Amino acid sequence: MVKEVFKEAEDQFLTLDWNNFLPGLTAGFTTKIGGNSSSSFSSLNLGLHVNDDLGAVAENRKLLSELLDFPTSNWACSDQVHDNQIMEVTKEEAGKGVFHYEESIKGTDGVYTKEANILLTLCYADCVPLYFCATNKKLIGMAHAGWKGTVKDIAGEMVRKWQEKEGVHPSEIIAAIGPSIGDCCYLVDDYVINFVEDKLSNNDAKPYKEVSQGQYSLNLKDLNKLLMMKAGIREENIHVSSYCTSCNSELFFSHRRDKGKTGRMMSFMGRKE
To answer: How far apart are CA 263 and CA 251, in angstroms?
Structure first.
């Protein structure tokens, strides 16, 4: 039985409890419950770019800010493009993209900071949220890994960036893989699997199974875990959520399940001082 690392806290979010690693840390993943949006976005949609009423999204973000006791002026929000760009966030980026999408940090799917009182945020509707922490440097980071970002090794990019720019050895990194679509609900074709295969060695366990001719169930969580380990993170330092966003229709939006018209959850991570 896998121990679930994301715990139900409020209706509006699950908590990643890493305070034993880094005191003052606020980290987790939102649900779709307890917000102000309606219709396909009911009710805690946190995405500004999905054609929801922007006033409702603003209220949802303010609500989350109050629940986390983290002012929106300290949030940093990105324009995510399914790539592997990693950016260090400082106080200069605080408040960017919170209520106006065009003001988001451009073209960035991975963010990290060593500064206190900044809340890193990224949005999801099936893609894999990745969390990173290096306690000796008080360094925290997150990445958004859909299949494209995954096969571009955004997980490994974060590890290498920290190693080169921050002097962090991969063995010092603790990582978590959050709620996302599971292989139970994620079918892909040969086109995607060819990219996956390019990232694998002959002796790697395959994070997919062929279920019919040219159709495969792909476990993006397992693939990201494998890539984290290839980058040098110890297996025992990687914590993986069992939640599937597609299966858990009461808790989460799902782009695939909801046929593209749906809201967005948010991963968040910040250290208070």
So the answer is: 12
Assess if residue 32 is contained within a domain.
yes
Strand partners, 14: 8, 29
CA distance linking residue 219 with residue 44, whole number of Å = 26
Q: Hey, is 174 helix, strand or coil?
A: strand
* Token pair recorded at residue 206: 């395959």
State the total domains in the chain: 1
Which single residue is written with the structure tokens 């991969």?
170
Mean pLDDT across the chain, nearest whole number? Answer: 97
Residue written as token pair 């490994």: 156
In-domain check, residue 1: no
**Would 249 be classed as within a structural domain?**
yes
pTM of the model: 0.98
Pairing outcome for strands 86-88 and 110-113? parallel
**78 token code pair:** 């990105």
Q: Which domain holds residue 25?
A: 6-271
Q: What is the pLDDT of residues 181-236, one digit of tens each?
A: 999 999 999 999 999 999 999 888 999 999 999 999 999 999 999 999 999 999 99
Tell which phi-psi region holds residue 214, choosing left (phi > 0), alpha (psi between -120 and 50) or beta.
Answer: left
